[in-house]
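User: Reviewer 2 asked us to show a designed sequence for the structure in our supplementary figure. I'm pasting the structure tokens here. Could you produce the per-position amino acids so we can include them in the response letter?
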């Protein structure tokens, strides 16, 4: 099994470390020639920058075709944004892969100063709560039929609304999280992803 990790920007090396710990081969994806993989991880980072680099590197169209053809994918934070079907508050030239039928809002939990950590229960994941690190994290605003919500959090937003929002979603062979499990060496979502291959 060879897992590609989009390596144009962001925290891709943390995903390499998690896969190394699981004895899974990883490939850093920087050009279309690197896309001969069994699944792909789209890491956290700065989604607008990543969008521009995906387009300028020539990766966008071939990776989108692979994703629409059933390539398994796992996106964390900015990776959730890039894999989503629709984006709110993005730049007009920002692209997504339309790989999972959700609508997300960039920085929905707030700016850097609003970063937080919490423990969450994840449907189908054993071993107790999962530690979740939210850094300028996206918020899932809409989930279509056919998308399974695996975890939610209750959050007091800047507009003083207290809402429960999805933070892990799965549709067929695509799983996304609003947060960064890789930053704390948490590997259980990676295992769920690998199980989709």
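Assistant: Here is a per-position design you can include in the supplement:
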């Amino acid at each position: 099994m060879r897992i590609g990790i989009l390596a144009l920007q962001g925290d891709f090396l943390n995903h390499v470390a998690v896969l190394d710990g699981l004895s899974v081969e990883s490939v850093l994806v920087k050009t279309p020639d690197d896309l001969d993989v069994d699944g792909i991880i789209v890491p956290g980072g700065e989604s607008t920058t990543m969008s521009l680099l995906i387009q300028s590197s020539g990766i966008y169209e071939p990776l989108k075709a692979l994703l629409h053809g059933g390539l398994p994918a796992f996106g964390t934070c900015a990776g959730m944004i890039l894999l989503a079907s629709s984006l709110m508050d993005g730049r007009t030239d920002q692209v997504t892969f339309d790989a999972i039928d959700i609508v997300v809002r960039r920085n929905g939990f707030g700016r850097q100063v609003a970063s937080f950590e919490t423990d969450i229960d994840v449907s189908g994941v054993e071993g107790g709560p999962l530690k979740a690190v939210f850094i300028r994290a996206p918020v899932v605003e809409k989930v279509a039929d056919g998308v399974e919500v695996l975890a939610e959090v209750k959050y007091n937003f800047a507009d003083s609304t207290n809402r429960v929002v999805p933070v892990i979603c799965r549709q067929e062979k695509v799983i996304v999280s609003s947060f960064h499990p890789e930053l704390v060496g948490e590997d259980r979502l990676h295992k769920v992803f690998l199980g989709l291959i």
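For the response letter, you might also mention the following. The chain has one domain: 2-194. The CA atoms of residues 85 and 98 lie 4 Å apart.
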